[in-house]
Amino acid sequence: MPSRMLLSCDPHDNEAGLMLLEDLTTNANQVQLEVLEEILTQNANTEYLRGYLDGHSDKGLFKKKVPIVNYEDIKPHIERIANGEPSRIISAQPITELLTSSGTSGGQPKLMPSTAEDLDRKTFFYNLLIPVMNKYVDGLDQGKGMYLLFIKPEISTPSGLMARPVLTSYYKSSNFRNGLSTHLIFASAFLRAIKFLEDHWRELCSNIRTDFIEFECNGESWEGIIKKLWPRTKYIEVIVTGSMAQYIPTLEFYSGGLPLVSTMYASSECYYGINLKPLSKPSDVSYTLLPNMAYFEFLHVQKNNGEVTQQVNASSSSSDLSHMPHLCPALHVLNRKNLLQSLWVGWLYRYRTGDILMVTGFYNNAPQFRFVQRRNVVLSIDTDKTNEEDLLKAVTQAKLLLEPYGFLLTEYTSYADTSSIPGHYVLFWELKTRGNNDLSEPDHTIMEQCCSTVEESLDSVYRRCRRRDNSIGPLEIRIVKPGTFDALMDFCVSQGSSVNQYKTPRCIKSKEAIKILDSRVVGKVFSKRYASGVFLALVPKICDNLTSRSISLPCSIASPYINFFSLTLIVETCFGMSLHFLSDKFKGPISRGKQRFHKQKPICSWNKSRGQHGISQIDVKEEDKIEV
Ligand code: AMP
Asked: Where is the GH3 C-terminal domain (predicted)?
């Protein structure tokens, strides 16, 4: 029987393609077992697997002995191959190239080894997408399609192997040139292309002399421009799931209501699943795992607090692998809403992809997932941990406030600014007006409300830190000039990302990247939330047994925070340390006034017996009026 890892599919034969899909998903269990078996028997004698299995290819042993790895664990092996050592360190099949992923390791793109068979599997995957699209959209075999294909220069490694992005590799292959194709483009790259058109249409029109294009491009607004320029367009194939979801309004603005189709979920290391209902709303998109692409395992992930170490795939009793369809038996028990982190087993063996998926159901016996986020994309100042999805939700809520005023949020990113104490979240927002006006900023008060709404929409730990612990300062939005995120993308591309695979990082760590953003800031606004109602006008009595020593210092924050932190500063001045718990202890309405507080005598006394690290008592007398 031919290997199910190497199937082929004729993209012109819809019926056969759909039958194959039925077969694979119905027999997901069997297919997965075959795949694992094939991987193990083929690779048992690689240096890597020998180290754990001593030449055996037993599945139970594999589950017991072979560790789950991150990129850093396998990097030395990959580097050896890049430096000219033989493929069999990790793969029985010759490694033909190294694929550069958008994930980075030590500032460099990760390198994923790939084989000729991998390329064929990708071709199979693409070919299978075509009957699925044909099932839902008529006439795709007639007329034209427009594809935006981005490729990047390749780098040759010391061994002579090419290192390049997965799509560059695919587009340059004969498989692509000789076949039909759908393709993978992330919303950010797609919008970049539209933006390019928006910025350069005059020049393009002067070259091709077309009145129609000129007329449309010169219209009042670019709303619906795609439909206007290409009236027969049936859909836009663009990935709008996961963090790409934030582009949906901008895409809708340009597209004039065309369906946005996210066809697949894929990465440099493996292509995972396809969207079997391509016309569904972006928020409803689930990807169905194709069980022949690799062997898949999943780790249960707990929201907010990272992952649970226990692996919950079929081998919870490790010798019993006969329940593969229950890829993760918990899927059957708990079914929906389980958050899982995928592991991919190919020649890299139990590689943690870092993607968090949510179970949405099954198609036949193949699990379906919603892409949630990449692991570890978090903002954190204190005990708060904000992940990409939380941030997206909060930003989505906040940006609704802008829409009635004709502003669209086109891009955002964030970073945890700890240069001031307490640290605070900074969001960079790039805005666009509806219509053709020059960009002007929204009203300051609305932006303040946006800050507050983001804070309100973040999780309870964040709010507690802000409201009660005062261990996070007010959230800040920095509005940046149009084109700033293009500059950020250019920077990332210059650092090794590929245009095609580029996704705006939702959290920036690189100082250089922050500098790029900061140099284009046109306005800054801070949240005022939690200032009112929490802190004091009349202070009754303050506290005992306080042990916290987080430091709160004033930042350059608009009132009433300055005032509130002035209070903190006084305490700081008196005792050499400041108090971040004041918000907890001072109750009462805030009365806004002048910053008279600085000039008053210190209001707190400190029992020094607790030493520098603890504050045991602070007395504030009733008559100590604190006006802020
Ligand atoms: P790369 O390693 O550069 O090939 O990027 C692959 C990563 O892109 C995956 O691990 C996901 O985090 C993300 N990704 C791929 N497909 C999708 C999708 N359909 N929706 C959301 N994110 C995706």
From this structure: 389-512
Atom of ligand 1 nearest to the CA of 262: 19
What residue spans define the domains of the chain?
379-526
Query: What mean pLDDT is predicted for residues 118-138?
Result: 94
CA 262 to ligand 1 center in whole angstroms: 12
- The average confidence (pLDDT) of the chain is 76
Most confident of 145-154, 186-195, 484-493: 484-493
Could you tell me if 343 and 336 are in contact, meaning their C-beta atoms sit under 8 angstroms apart?
no
Q: Residue 270: which H helix or E strand, with range?
A: none
- State mean pLDDT over 550-558: 24
pLDDT computed for residue 12 by the predictor = 85
Question: For residue range 189-241, what is the model confidence (pLDDT) as tens digits?
Answer: 888 788 888 888 888 888 776 788 888 999 989 999 999 999 999 999 999 99
Structure tokens, 314: 């079929």
Q: Distance, CA 106 to ligand 1 centroid (Å)?
A: 20
Q: Which atom of ligand 1 is nearest to the CA of 99?
A: 4
Probe target for ligand 1 pocket from 271, 355, 500, with the most ligand atoms within 8 Å of CB: 355
Residue 619 has pLDDT above 50, yes or no: no
Find the 525 Cα to ligand 1 centroid distance in Å. 33
Question: In the structure encoding, which two tokens stand for residue 427, read together?
Answer: 């969001």
Instruction: Sort 564 into a burial class: Cβ within 10 Å, 0-12 / 13-18 / 19+.
Output: buried
154 close to 164: Cβ distance less than 8 angstroms: yes
- Report the C-alpha gap between 293 and 272 in whole angstroms: 7
Task: Tell me which H or E stretch contains 101.
Answer: strand 95-105
Gap between the Cα atoms of 579 and 26, Å rounded: 61
Ligand 1 centroid–CA 205 distance in Å is 35
How many A from CA of 58 to the centre of ligand 1? 32
Average pLDDT on 579-595 reads 32
Higher pLDDT, 356 or 534: 356
Return the ∠ at Cα 284 (arms to 282 and 289), rounded to 5°: 100
Q: Tell me the backbone φ, ψ of residue 371, rounded to 5 degrees.
A: -75, 125
Which among 411, 413, 403 is positioned nearest to 433, based on CA atoms? 403
Which of residues 92 and 388 earns the better pLDDT score? 92
Distance CA 453, CA 463 (A): 11
Alpha-carbon span 356 to 28, nearest angstrom: 21
Burial 102-127 (b: 16+ CB within 10 A, else e): bbbeeeebbbbbbbebbbbbbbbbbb
- Banded pLDDT at 340 (limits 50, 70, 90): low
Q: How far apart are CA 38 and CA 30, in angstroms?
A: 12
Specify the pLDDT at position 182. 63
- In the predicted model, is pLDDT for residue 540 greater than 60? no
Q: How many Å lie between the centroid of ligand 1 and the Cα of residue 517?
A: 24
Which is higher by pLDDT, 464 or 524?
Answer: 524
Show the ligand 1 pocket: residues with CB < 6 angstroms: 101-103, 166, 239, 241-242, 244, 262, 265-268, 353, 355, 371, 374, 501
Atom of ligand 1 nearest to the CA of 503: 8
Q: Given this model, what pLDDT does residue 180 score?
A: 64
Residue located nearest, by CA, to atom 22 of ligand 1: 242
Two structure tokens written together for 228: 């206007």
Mean pLDDT along residues 50-79: 91
